[in-house]
């Protein structure tokens, strides 16, 4: 079943796990992910880790609508994941609700068959007042990348409730396709321009994540 992209709820979730609870947290989150896959209203749910942040786990999710997400929150496997906050996390779960600034035109979203792909997630925090400039940069860049060989998805999101937070989510068929993308002149120009607008550096913002959803 399909729906308009405007109905879809997209989430980027961070969990800061106590080192001694890492295995427990992974088990609880995998149960949540696999349970979500069985729900009609779930389009995508992936669990990631990143070597440079060994005790942080990430979820990227898309839901048919808010009602589907609320139903997910009631499931026992989801309650189990939220229960990690009682004793196994350093701080409460960070849930970022996202708006895809340029969803694919004339296409509808639907449930995806899970595939482990080469994935980057890049949370940006721009300096105050620079939101419009970074949006302008990516408005030109996103359609170019979507035409590149091996690109599966390239989505740029604003974080709801903030003028300064954005999340880039990109997926590639393999590492070679990503490396070819990174060598392009247009990519280098974008990185240079974005670096002037954000807090920190572009490279420091990139999460080189590994899909551990299976």
UniProtKB/TrEMBL annotation:
EC number: 1.-.-.-
Family matches, as SUPFAM superfamilies: Dimeric alpha+beta barrel (SSF54909)
UniProt keyword Oxidoreductase present: yes
GO molecular function: monooxygenase activity
Top-level EC class as recorded in UniProt: oxidoreductase
InterPro entries: ABM_dom, AI-2_Isomerase_LsrG, Dimeric_a/b-barrel
Organism domain of life: Bacteria
Keyword Oxidoreductase carried by entry: yes
Signal peptide positions (record): none
Family annotation (Gene3D superfamilies): 3.30.70.100
Keywords associated with the record: Monooxygenase, Oxidoreductase
Residue ranges of domain ABM in the record: 9-98, 118-208
A Pfam family that the UniProt record links to this protein: ABM
Name of the protein in its database record: Quinol monooxygenase
């Amino acid at each position: 079943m399909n729906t308009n992209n405007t109905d879809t709820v997209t989430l980027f979730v961070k969990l800061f796990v106590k080192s001694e609870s890492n295995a427990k947290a992974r088990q609880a989150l995998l149960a949540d992910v696999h349970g979500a896959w069985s729900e009609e209203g779930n389009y995508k749910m992936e669990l990631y880790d990143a070597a440079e942040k060994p005790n942080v786990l990430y979820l990227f999710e898309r839901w048919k609508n808010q009602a589907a997400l609320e139903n997910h929150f009631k499931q026992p496997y989801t309650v189990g994941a939220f229960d990690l906050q009682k004793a196994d996390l350093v701080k409460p779960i960070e849930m970022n609700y996202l708006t895809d600034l340029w969803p694919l035109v004339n296409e509808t979203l639907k449930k995806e068959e899970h595939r482990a792909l080469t994935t980057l997630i890049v949370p940006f925090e721009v300096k105050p007042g620079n939101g419009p400039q970074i949006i302008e940069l990516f408005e030109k860049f996103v359609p170019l990348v979507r035409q590149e060989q091996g690109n599966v998805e390239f989505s740029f999101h604003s974080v709801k409730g903030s003028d300064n937070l954005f999340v880039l989510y990109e997926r590639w068929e393999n590492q070679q396709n990503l490396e070819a993308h990174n060598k392009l002149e247009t990519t280098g120009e974008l990185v240079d321009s974005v670096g002037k607008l954000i807090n920190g550096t572009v490279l420091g913002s990139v999460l080189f994540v590994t899909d551990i959803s299976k």
